[in-house]
Design goal:
Blueprint (H helix, E strand, L loop, with lengths): L4 E5 L12 E4 L1 H11 L2 E3 L2 H35 L2 E5 L13 H12 L8 E2 L7 E10 L2 E11 L1
Parallel strand pairs: 4-7
Antiparallel strand pairs: 1-2, 1-3, 5-6, 6-7
Length: 152
């Protein structure tokens, strides 16, 4: 079997790896394509240290995001019930619907936190009453927010 070269990718390469990955490739592929195009660099001890430092920074950033999301979850728990006002008709049927934007606005007003409306999951809401919404703050952190729908 022929000798393989270790290179560190400087950008994503389809079917080979992502930016910063250490991969083994055929010497001709590295010498004739990856290195001249600037797509990869030879894996020297200095470059390997740089790659490891980048990975550590990325890991620290992801950990900080997770801790921030956990703190926001605790803050949302302490807020209490949110209030959403809607126009109602007979038998407390609401006109229109309660949207995720309504819940996001209520969270912003009450807790002072910006929440992406696309991360909010609502139950079917047809009448006034108490409901719960799931708010996805991070891929690993979901908070539950209670709210009341009351007449305008």
């Amino acid at each position: 079997m022929s000798k393989r070269l270790q290179v560190v990718l400087n950008q994503d390469v389809r079917k080979l790896g992502n930016n910063g990955d250490l991969v083994e490739v055929a010497p001709g592929y590295a010498r004739n394509y990856l290195l001249p195009q600037g797509i990869a660099s030879l894996a020297t001890p200095g470059i390997l240290r740089q790659v490891e430092q980048r990975r550590e920074k990325e890991r620290q950033r992801l950990l900080a995001e997770l801790q921030d999301a956990e703190a926001r979850k605790v803050a949302l728990k302490t807020v209490g019930k949110l209030i959403i006002r809607k126009q109602v008709g007979e038998e407390n049927q609401i006109f229109g619907t309660v949207t995720t934007q309504d819940v996001a606005d209520a969270i912003k007003e009450r807790a002072g936190q910006d929440v992406d409306r696309r991360g909010i999951t609502l139950p079917e809401i047809g009448k006034t009453g108490s409901y719960e919404a799931q708010v996805k703050l991070h891929p690993e952190v979901t908070a539950t927010v209670q709210f009341d729908v009351i007449p305008l």
